[in-house]
User: What shape does this take?
Amino acid sequence: MKKWEVIAFDADDTLWDCQSFFETVENRLYELIAPYCDDPARELFKTESGNMADLGYGCKAFTISVIETALRVGGAHLDSETLSELLRQCKRLLQLPATPLPEVEQTLAAIDGYRKVCFTKGELQDQENKLRRSGLLRYFDDVEITSDKSQKEFEALCDHQHIHPSELLMVGNSLKSDIAPALAIGAWAIHIPFHVTWQLEHFDDFDHERLIKIEKFSDILKFI
Assistant: This one.
């Protein structure tokens, strides 16, 4: 197996659970607007999709989309107290515990001989705070937070780390954001599926000669 120079790790839903907290807010929104639409999840997806180009990813973008959906669908049926309660739930997302998923910390501590980079997308302050709260920052040689993860951002990561794409191994849970663009520039990738996939991250499963699929985080050690 090829020895890489850099192993890059996604953060949300790879190092710690993020989606389950967002689901709590989503479910509350769905309860509030269900009487006024046929498919609450579709209404939120419509709002998030429309806001993506301007707001990107992260808690603040999610909060705006949730409140916008509540106002658009629920309208005059939702009073200010209800909307304030929904907003408070959204703001609590900024204090997610970011508890490492099983085997993450032990595995990161065991990886030696590679430069380890946390490469994640989202809002700079929010992601930095989650990384600090997780207690995992000490295991990384570098941290790169970006607004998106396309081929362009992966190429920039390789430039910043002074490596050829073939010297990069990307580890993440999203086929769309972590795996496909890494493979497209000539890097390698390890996919660790998470039990929930955000609708905007859905991507058909596929195989590739430079793609490794594993079931649990510690399986990384079998391939490096």
Remarks:
- The first strand starts at residue 6 and ends at 9.
